[in-house]
Amino acid sequence: MGFPIYRPRRTRATENLRSMIRETELSVNDLIYPLFVVPGKNVKHEIESLPGNYHWSLDRLPEVLDEITELKIPAVILFGIPSYKNATGSSAWDMEEPVQQACRLIKEKYPDLVIVTDVCLCEYTEHGHCGVLENGCTVNNDATLPLLAKVAVSHAKAGADIIAPSNMMDGYVKAIRTALDEEGFTNIPIMAYSAKFASAYYGPFRAAADSAPEHGDRKGYQMDPANSDEALREVELDIEEGADIVMVKPALAFMDIIRRVKDTFNRPLCVYNVSGEYAMVKAAAEKGWIDEKRIVMETLTGFKRAGAKMIITYHALDAARWLRGE
Predict the structure, then answer these.
(1) Rounded to an integer, what distance in angstroms lies between the CA atom of residue 93 and that of residue 153?
(2) Secondary structure of the chain: what % helix, strand, coil (to 5)?
(3) pLDDT score, position 167
(4) Which of 183, 223, 178, 185 shows the shortest CA–CA distance to 202?
(5) Exactly one of 174, 196, 282, 304 is catalytic; which is it?
(6) How far is residue 248's CA from residue 88's CA, in Å, rounded to a whole number?
(7) Are the CB atoms for 177 and 189 separated by under 8 Å?
(8) Which residues contact 113 (CB under 8 A, 6 or more apart)?
(9) Is 159 exposed, middle or buried (0-12, 13-18, 19+ CB in 10 A)?
(10) Calpha distance 85→92 (Å, rounded)
(11) Can you list the alpha helix ranges (DSSP code H) found in the chain?
């Protein structure tokens, strides 16, 4: 039996050969770094469930912003811990709360950094759900929409560049797009959390953002992880309502969804490499069971290969260093 004429191994012999035919490239320009901003002063508190990530008060936020800009990471996404909570989550649209203040600071001192802001009520309500409750137990979808619109407008007024609503209410993109346009923010894009699944991978974030539901769960409005076709319907609805960028969240267990969304819709696609995915890697690396750098870079490249254009990841600072050879 003769040898094959074509031998794929020939182009794998050296790093330079491999790089010449590499199909997928990961870049620092793909990365968005999450930041948790909190009330108070002189706060830099490491988040136990997200080692290497911190709660930042406004006065110390420039420490990490300097690092982000030096590494040339193009964007951050802001999550806020409010100074007060209530049944409607009104602190979410309070112009003196941490997210709005952080937007103003970044816009003034780091004007080239893209500011993405999360629009949801879970961090701001006493009960921890993503909207106002009806009969104390069920989220009232339509009563929540105008509140989400108020949050989005407050972020735009504070200087946000991209509004990223994560609440999974039906009709949320249209409500936010209408409110932004009415207030003159027609050029502010919406990054919709279009296919957001009711996932067990969110645990560390909920501890970090103090946003776990007081009772029940979010399966009534976030998607069933078993569903793929439904994800495409959700993405299509958000696009019809005016979404400029769509998202799949989580990323690691849903790369089939990422590929289907990429192949089906002509829209920029973001994925969220969520807290549980990050925490598992950090825990295994701490035990010495894995090569953290190789695992992270392989995973992020996998998201790009699946079709992602942008990646929200807690690994962003490390990945940016590794990409420039440090």
Answers:
(1) 8
(2) 45, 20, 40
(3) 87
(4) 223
(5) 196
(6) 27
(7) no
(8) 65, 68, 69, 74, 75, 76, 106
(9) middle
(10) 9
(11) 15-21, 61-70, 98-109, 141-158, 172-182, 203-209, 229-241, 255-264, 275-286, 292-306, 316-323
The amino acid at 129: H
d(CA 161, CA 113): 9
107 belongs to the catalytic site: no
Token pair 């936020």: residue:
61
Cα end-to-end span (Å), the chain: 48
Decide: 191 and 270 in contact? Cβ < 8 Å. Answer: yes
Joined together, the tokens standing for residue 159 give 């200087």
Which residue of the set 249, 282, 287, 293 is catalytic?
249
How wide is the angle at C-alpha 296 spanned by C-alphas 245 and 57, nearest 5°? 65
The upper half-sphere exposure of residue 150, i.e. CA atoms within 13 Å in the direction of its Cβ, equals 15
Cis amide bond preceding 250, omega within 30:
yes
- SS3 call for 281: helix
Q: Is the distance from CB of 201 to CB of 274 less than 8 angstroms? A: yes
Residue 193 is inside which H or E element, if any?
A: strand 191-196
Report the chain (326 residues): mean pLDDT per 10 consecutive residues. 81 92 95 97 94 96 98 97 90 95 98 96 80 78 93 98 92 96 97 94 74 58 92 97 97 97 96 96 97 98 98 98 94
For the question of residue 150 being annotated catalytic, the response is no
Q: What is the dihedral of CA 48, 52, 58, 63, to 10 degrees?
A: 150
Confidence at residue 139, expressed as pLDDT on a 0 to 100 scale:
83
SS3 of residue 35 by DSSP = strand
Give the separation between CA 269 and CA 317, rounded to whole angstroms. Answer: 21
Residue 213's pLDDT is what? 54
> Residue 271's closest CA among 240, 308, 245?
308
Structure tokens at 174: 């249209």
Q: Coil, strand or helix: which one is 239?
A: helix
